[in-house]
Amino acid sequence: MIRFVLADLRRLWAGSLVVVLLVALATALGVAVTLQERALRLGSARAADRFDLVVGAAGSETQLVLSSIFLQPSPLPLVPGKVLHDLARDPRVAWAAPVGFGDNVDGYPLVGTTAALIDGAGGGLAEGRAFATRAEAVVGSAVPFRLDHELKPMHGLAGEGGHTHDEIAYRVVGRMAPTGTPWDRAILVPIEAVWGVHGMGAHADQDHSAGGEGAHDGRDPAHDHDHAEDLAAAALGGPWSAEAPGVPAILVKPKTFADAYKLRGEYRSGATLAVFPGEVLTALYATLGDAKAVLGAVAIGAQALVAAAILLVTVVHVSQRRRQIGALRALGAPRLALFGIVWTELFLLVGGGILIGIGLGYGAARVLSGLFTRESGVVLPVEFVRGDLSLLVGLLAVSALLAALPALLAYRQPPAAGLRA
């Protein structure tokens, strides 16, 4: 029977190929949607897991998380420097790292922060050391610049009215270990350097002048020059005064789980906003869930149309083979054998299309995830789970039922009716 089926498929290879491709493409659409949505959830969750609490100015929670954790460019209102001052001295806080952004180097975002972020959330260093002066930088694992490379920051993009900050150049002194997050594409520099480039005084506790860097209080220019050199050589990362410049966001590592909730409650009022990144992502997942439901419905509709088309084609195919089936019956072929021949042929076509479609859907999801990772830095893990096996079994079971309908027509056909056709 198997040799008969294979010979029949070789004889009708063009039609068989069309059926397999239809099933494969319809299956691939559903598989790609499922795998890509799951990969986006896992990848974004893993990227946010490194950060416990984000504090910013009152505004959009979603935009605060997208900008501070996923480094999506967007203007954020500045949180007052007093908040940074208070968090840095709070006994419930293990570390509080400000983040300031807006500049880039060849499209790689430049983030002003402190060395605490490199060890606390960046996974440590793979080579080199942390920055120790305002003119030094640490690059992410996916940034192509080597150690000792000189970087010139740019505000905006070259083709869109951006300009280069000629007053400073950073030297790469370290590279972070891979994290699978957007921080792999980031360039980290001291927050004090970002403040200085944008005309904002550092206002460290060592500098209590009202104007910060470059402020004139009646001293002679030589004294001001010495004062600027002292600031450049001052220790980075604070401690800061309550008059420190504002920052777009502050990444906070609470000491305990209870401390995290207390801090969030205290800074979710008035001019500040505190969020757990995971909670914000949950709201985004709900939106993704709605999009997945729509795409899933489209995929199911496509599969249903393909199934109906295949059923119609196979019924017509069986009708055209009535004479062949009648001849086999007249030669003594039992009904069950005819049922097995027709069912096996159709199941091989539909089942093979499903297996090919799963491979195509997986490959498409991998390609899309790779493109997304290249653009955003978020690693999207495309993987199957145990529940996908039950989905495969269900698809094959439906295929078996669809293949049984034309086979039943061949089973019930009388020999004489087939020979008269």
Structure notes:
The chain has 2 domains: 2-45 and 283-420, no CATH class; 53-275, no CATH class. Helix 1 (2-11) crosses helix 11 (335-376) and helix 11 (335-376) runs antiparallel to helix 12 (386-412). The chain is elongated and about 95 Å long. The chain is α+β, with helices and mostly antiparallel strands and 421 residues long. Strand 2 (93-105) and strand 3 form a beta hairpin. It has helices spanning 2-11, 13-48, 61-68, 81-89, 115-120, 191-197, 221-233, 257-266, 277-320, 322-330, 335-376, 386-412, 415-420, and strands at residues 53-57, 93-105, 108-113, 125-128, 136-139, 150-151, 154-155, 163-164, 170-176, 187-190, 249-254, 272-275. The protein has 13 helices and 12 strands. Strands 1, 2, 3, 4, 5, 6, 7, 8, 9, 10, 11 and 12 form a 12-stranded mixed β-sheet that branches. Helix content is 54%, strand content 14%.
- Encode the helix/strand succession as letters: HHEHHEEHEEEEEEEHHEHEHHHHH
By secondary-structure content and strand pairing, the structural class works out as alpha+beta
So what's the overall shape? elongated
Total count of domains: 2
Rg, please? 32 Å
Distance between the termini: 24 Å
Number of strands: 12
Helix content: 40-55%
Which segments are poorly predicted (pLDDT under 50) over 5 or more consecutive residues? 204-234
Please describe the biggest sheet, giving its number of strands, its sense, and whether it closes into a barrel. Answer: 12 strands, mixed
Percentage of β-strand residues: 5-15%
Number of helices: 13
Summarize model confidence as the mean pLDDT. 78
